[in-house]
Design goal:
SH3 type barrels, alpha+beta, four-stranded antiparallel sheet, three-stranded antiparallel sheet, single chain
């Protein structure tokens, strides 16, 4: 299996880059994670793993962006102002969007296997859709 650095080296010499569905080994500061490329954007490659989801692989990892004139963290779930939770992510056109999700008056009861199974089936969490949709983030919480 090739590491992400191997792909970058090959890309410089042969114009070959990872494609959607390729498995990469990403070396982080304290661990090596296997990731599947799920999307390729102008900024880099979006990969998913069991442990880390939605990191854009860049030479400099993008962690903050401007949303309505202020710096916001990308991909970090936080307490919401309109709904229970919110997260800022890159949208389909490359702009930063705020995703609101969850009912503020309800608790997540994912410790009950029956409730968890019912929620995940009802919301089709096997295929949660793109990161800029509320269903993606609700399914991650469950």
């Amino acid at each position: 299996m090739k590491t992400f650095k191997d792909y970058l080296t090959e890309e410089e010499t042969s114009e070959q880059s990872p494609s959607v569905g390729d498995v990469l080994e990403i070396e982080l500061t304290d661990q090596i994670v296997e990731a599947v490329v799920v999307d390729i954007t102008d900024e880099g490659y979006i990969c998913e793993t069991d442990n880390l989801t939605g990191y854009t692989l860049l030479e400099e990892t993008l962690t903050e962006a401007k949303y309505q004139g202020r710096e916001v963290p990308l991909g970090k779930k936080m307490k919401g102002d309109v709904k229970k939770s919110k997260v800022y992510v890159k949208g389909p056109k490359g702009n930063v969007v705020k995703v609101n999700f969850g009912d503020p008056n309800m608790r997540i009861k994912k410790s009950s296997p029956a409730r968890r199974k019912s929620f995940r089936a009802r919301h089709n969490c096997a295929n949660p859709g793109p990161r800029w949709k509320a269903r993606y983030w609700s399914c991650r919480a469950w």
